């Protein structure tokens, strides 16, 4: 974060508008749960050939994945609904 000396982790995932799911890795979920104030899931929604919208989600995950899980498919529309414009 500018001027604070604090690092922030931003995971950027992109999907075409209307896609059913977006995939996140177990490590991304664990990091977001261990450092909730330092993690942003940034989703780039591609709305056309040359257009897009960015959505930031802070504290995007409510629980850790089960043991043995490598990645999780999340509902794309639900995540976008919880997102906000980047600041």
Can you describe what's shown?
Helix content is 18%, strand content 38%. It has one domain. The protein contains 2 helices and 5 strands. The model has no long low-confidence stretch (mean pLDDT 93). A 3-stranded mixed beta sheet has the order 1-3-4. The protein has helices at 26-34, 76-82; strands at 9-16, 21-25, 39-46, 52-58, 71-75. The protein has 87 residues and is an alpha+beta fold. Strand 3 and strand 4 (52-58) form a beta hairpin.
Key features?
87 residues, two-stranded antiparallel ribbon, 5 strands
Explain the layout of strands and helices:
Blueprint: E1 9-16, E2 21-25, H1 26-34, E3 39-46, E4 52-58, E5 71-75, H2 76-82
Distance between the termini: 11 Å
The tally of beta strands, per DSSP, is 5
Widest β-sheet, arrangement of strands? 1-3-4
Percent strand: 35-45%
The total count of helices amounts to: 2
- How many structural domains are formed by the residues? 1
* Contiguous runs where pLDDT drops below 50 for at least 5 residues: none
Structural class by secondary-structure content: alpha+beta
- The proportion of residues forming helix, as a percent range, comes to 10-25%
Oligomer classification = single chain
Q: What is the string of helix and strand elements? A: EEHEEEH
Largest sheet: 3 strands, mixed
Radius of gyration: 13 Å
- Shape label: flat
**Mean pLDDT reading:** 93
């Amino acid at each position: 974060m500018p001027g604070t000396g604090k690092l922030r982790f931003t995971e950027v995932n992109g999907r075409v508008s209307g896609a059913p799911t977006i995939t996140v890795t177990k490590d991304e979920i664990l990091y977001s749960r261990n450092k909730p104030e330092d993690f942003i899931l940034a989703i780039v929604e591609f709305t056309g050939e040359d257009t897009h919208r960015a959505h930031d989600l802070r504290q995007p995950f409510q629980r850790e994945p089960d043991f043995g899980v490598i990645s999780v498919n999340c509902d794309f529309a639900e995540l976008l609904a919880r997102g906000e414009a980047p600041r």
